[in-house]
Every structure is written in structure tokens, then in C-alpha cells.
């Protein structure tokens, strides 16, 4: 995949992106009720709490669903796999699936995190066969 | 009629603007839709005191009102993708019944085919979470979300690629009966044509995807009292409901549970009807999978069974469940935000104006719009007096 436009960051999401510099996947966690959520927000969508912290993710999950993109967007080389991965901790992330033939994927298989480095030192979590 | 009955909102006019490849501006097409729908009702722009539309400009209704030379006392530009127009029916009916407006026009038009303005791609606004957490992975928007929904559907239900294709095959059969359909002269479509088409975002091929055309339409609502003075068949608004569920592809816990479950239940409860009472159904067919998920959510069949429900030509002309009788977004017209044209076709079916594709004796109709990536759902149930 060719060089990507760098994703923006904001004050809520900065810790999440900073963790990616060390290839650490973290999940926003409510300090009041313990709920985990992704993407990071200014509020816990379960209890409404606004005191939010971070927990380390195990980096494993299962493929909820996926799609092989055959008509690439600018900056991408088709075919590539876009997927929803349900992390072991519960939240779902949108991601790419790599390290396997694009036509070999099926729903509900186990995957683990890989990292795609960005030019500013951050990295994107992507997933491959567990 | 009693005062309450007199203020009851009804639909008195519908129209399409030019469809297909028009080489006309959005405002010209909007003007066609609005003025033709008013003419259909026997009304004129001077009668309009309420206006709702989307995608004209940043201030959509304001822009269109200025262009038409009117100063509405009620307006709505809620941007909810293809379901906005079903939402507008609810809000317009409430405004009329509350006495805030007398005659409201709901309209949409686009020139996306002739203007080549449709992009497959990333439309994420930089300040949104999706720009950070989804855009970098290159999903086609909205197509990849529907691809993932379809993949999950096939995985959970045992349906096949061929079963999905049946939706597009039936849509083409209807379009062959509709002279205004983009594919009117294209001949029949086979399951093999759909399955063998170019993969865009698997498992969806080009044949599973709606058209990209110019077009649009408008509907006119007024009071039952006013309608009685017009030479029209007034169409009653029996029920409506809506649901807004997500805008991120990662938010839904369950890709197959759409807002149709909520919007449909609300609309049926308000109408005092059940799915078995509906004579003709118009469901936004942005993609083949959208139809299956919507039919299940609306309660026409159980979850995971729509692919069986539609088998053997059931939704095709002559079948016992007439669906998307215009040919739908798949084969008739898809200017984006198809919801307005669902309403136009539903009204025409109830007025008995659909020629070769008319569903005999249709007295109740349902229109169900979806927007974004199944982000919004809105349902309207219409009827005519028996």
C-alpha cells in the first residue's frame, strides 16, 4: 500500500495515537463503570461518565466481517481487505487484514495485531492471522 | 369534516424531474420537480408555505426557496441521506396538523451523472472520528459497509451470492415495465450477469449496486380540507417512524440489525396495521443487501430469512409481494438519496397510475428509506380510502 495521508488527531484521541508510536494498542476505558469503547470520545456511551482513561488491549480478536476492495481509492493498491475486527475486550475496530491471500478470509476467524508505520512516527493497527 | 380531520395532512401531488443524463443544474432539476408536483396537485408556487429539501447547497432549503421566489414559514434541511424524505413526511405532517403551515413541498434532485460528481471514495470530514479511525483503511464509502453487511449476512444465514442477485434481477424486470426507467430498454438481467459482474467491494459486484443517474422528485402535502377542493386522489399518511443508529462503520454491534426494526415498528403501530396489510412496498435498494436487511427489519419476514422470502419471483412482476415497482435504484433511477422517489412511486401505485406495472387494487403502501451506511432508517405507511 502506498503512502497514506496522515490521519488527523485531536485532544481526546492524542493518547491513543501516541501509544501507536510504541506499537501499543490501547482502548479508552471509563473510570466510573469500566466500559471500554472505540473510537475514543469525550463521554462514556454506557454510563455517561466523563472521567475516561486507557487500558492495554491484548491485540487479538476475531473478524466480524470483511470486504475485499477491488476498486482502490487514491493511495491504495487493490485488492485489499477492509474489515471489522471485534477485539477480545469487546470494542470493534475498522482495520485492514493482511498477511494472507485476500480471498482466503472468512468471518469469525481469529486475528492478531500488526503495525503499519506512518511517516510521522505513529502507526496504524492492522490485523493478520492469529 | 371535523376541524381535526380537516387539518389532517395528506399527499396531493407527486412528480419526477428529468431523469437519466440531463446536463441540467441541480436548481433547474429541483424547480422541475417542485413545479411539476404542484401542477399535479392543481396548486402553484404561490400556495407553498413550507419547503424541505437536501443537497442543494450548504443552506439547502434557504437556497431553493430563494431560487423559487418564496418565503416559507416552515422549512427543513435535515441531512440524513436517503431516508431524509421519509423523515420530512413525518415532520411536514406534524407541521401542517399543528397549523404551522398549509402546503409543504418535499423535494430532491441531483445531476450526479451528467456532472460526474459521484465519488467512490473517502468523504470523511477531517474533524470527525472516522477521518482518524476509518479513512486510513481505505473503505469505499458507502459501498464497503454494505459489502461487510452482505458478507456477514451470507455467513450467518446460509444465503448465497446468487440469492442476493435475485433482488437485482427482479428490479430489472420491473424496470422493463417502466418507460422512465434508466434500464427500460436494457433487456432482462440474469443471476449470472450479477454474480459475474465486476467485483467492487466483495461480495458485491457492479450488479448489486444502484445506478448513478441524474434525477429526483417532489411530493406535495396539504390539509385534507384543502385537498377536498382539489381534483385529486388524496393519499393518507397512516404512520411513520425513524431511527438514527451510527455513522462509523465500527459502531454497530450487529451489522444485520438495522434501524428498520425500530422505524418499522413505530410506523406500523401508528398505522394500526401489520406487514400483512401492506399491498405494495418500496424499499431503498442502494445495494441488493439493503433490501434483504430492510425487509427483515420491517417485519415482512424473520431475521435471516429474506433471501428465502424473495425466492421464486415473489418480488418480481406477477409475484405476490410487489416490491420496488419502479425498478428501484438498481434499474430505474438513482440520483443519490432515493427516498423521495420511493414516495413518488408509492403514491402513484395508490392512485392507480402505474400502467403496466400497476399493482391491482393497491390500497396501502410502505416506503422505507435508508441513509449513509445504514446510518438512518425512516418508514412511511400510506393509504387511500377503500
Features:
heterodimer, A: mainly beta, OB fold (Dihydrolipoamide Acetyltransferase, E2P), five-stranded antiparallel beta sheet, three-stranded antiparallel beta sheet, 1 helix, 8 strands, B: 386 residues, alpha/beta, nine-stranded mixed beta sheet, two-stranded antiparallel ribbon, 11 strands, globular
What would you note in describing this structure?
The complex is a heterodimer of chains A (130) and B (386). Chain A is mainly beta. Chain A has a single domain, classed as OB fold (Dihydrolipoamide Acetyltransferase, E2P), CATH 2.40.50. Chain A is 5% helix and 39% strand. Chain A is built from 1 helix and 8 strands, in the order H-E-E-E-E-E-E-E-E. Chain A has one helix spanning 14-20; strands spanning 26-30, 36-37, 52-56, 60-69, 80-87, 92-97, 110-117, 123-129. A 5-stranded antiparallel sheet of chain A has the order 6-5-4-7-8, with no helix packed on it. Chain A has a 3-stranded antiparallel sheet with strand order 2-1-3, covered by helices on one side. Chain B has 386 residues and is an alpha/beta fold. Chain B has a single domain (3-115, 211-383), classed as Thiolase/Chalcone synthase (Peroxisomal Thiolase, Chain A, domain 1), CATH 3.40.47. Helix content of chain B is 35%, strand content 17%. Chain B contains 14 helices and 11 strands. Chain B is globular, with a radius of gyration of 19 Å. Chain B starts with a helix and ends with a strand. In chain B, 60% of the residues are buried. The interface between A and B is large, with 41 and 37 residues.
Termini separation of chain A (Å)?
Answer: 21 Å
* Number of domain modules of chain A: 1
Strand content of chain B: 15-25%
Rg of chain B, Cα atoms, Å: 19 Å
Determine the CATH superfamily of chain B: Thiolase/Chalcone synthase
* Separation, N- and C-terminal Cα atoms of chain B: 18 Å
The first-level CATH class name of chain A: Mainly Beta
Largest interface: A-B, 41 and 37 residues
